[in-house]
Amino acid sequence: xxxxxxxxxxxxxxxxxxxxxxxxxxxxENNFIFYLPGMIRYGKVRGLxxxxxxxxxxxxxxxxxxxxxxLKPMIRATDPETLITKCLKLAHSGxxxxxxxxxxxxxxxxxxxxxxxxxxxxxxxxxxxxxVHSGFLDFSTAVALKEAGVDQALIDVMGDEETAKKxxxxxxxxxxxxxxENLFKSGLDVVPHIVxxxxxxxxHGEYDALRIISRFKPSSFVIVVLMPLKGTPMSGVLxxxxxxxxxxxxxARLMMPQTPISLGCERPRNKxxxxxxxxxxxxxxxxxxxxxxxxxxxxxxxxxKPLFQPTxxxxxxxxxxxxxxxxxxxxxxxxxx
Length: 337
Known about the structure:
Largest sheet: 11 strands, parallel
Strand order of the largest sheet: 5-4-6-7-8-9-10-11-12-1-13
Structural class: alpha/beta
Mean pLDDT: 94
CATH architecture: Alpha-Beta Barrel
Number of domains: 1
Distance between the termini: 46 Å
Low-confidence stretches: none
Strand content: 15-25%
CATH class: Alpha Beta
Number of strands: 13
Radius of gyration: 19 Å
CATH superfamily: Aldolase class I
Number of helices: 11
Order of helices and strands: HEEEEEHEHEHEHHEHEHEHEHEH
């Protein structure tokens, strides 16, 4: 039987959050960017940044927290021609960009090779911003993605051998570190992600992952939280508490004072989720995917200026992207004109 999360905040936590808040205000403007990805609705409004799977529902790696289930809601684009057709259609219907994703082989690789030319064509014929879930890759693949026109690479980073092997089914943590090195050396904009609670809901190697990531000085960084999916070995697991996530965000802020930090879309949507949003702001986040009205009110009360963008939370803020979301939110009564 699940027990409730421990949301007690100690004095040491308050001191940590205060320090992180002050560092954030010293290094960042008072804008706080709220994102609506293409896979999620806010009221009747959907983001303009869908995920496409290059492998459909297929995955050989079958990580313990996913087992390929996260691929199911994605748009299928399993051959180059289909990818081009679907991206052109999305561009013509006003979408800002797409996230190219998919299942991995047993080495953690996606089938990028057959898609380089189609990616290049999409970038030539549209204004879509292209993010990729890069997978774990060699240097030549990273360079080829950069040369094809990929705008941004997203990669999961774990901090210990046990998580790399038992949860991601990789040979070693070194594969993750080498992949990070390859992505950064290629010149791609790289946005590392930490999935907090991967070791069956426990904070395990996340702080070591932060130390690895901070060495690379990324342009931005995302923390998401384990979502126990039915049909996976983690279906009955309790995710980390909001306080544990806030500690992780605050530590990241102190390690990377100038880096935009986002609380990503994969996280609990319940009472704990509301508290997680609140504490994330105090702990030094500057971005958040999806939001509650209480969180908008909190941001305003703290003197922050909420901005909105219909993309993944890794994408830099652009006013033209933001304008595509503002009026739909106003029309739905989610925002004042």
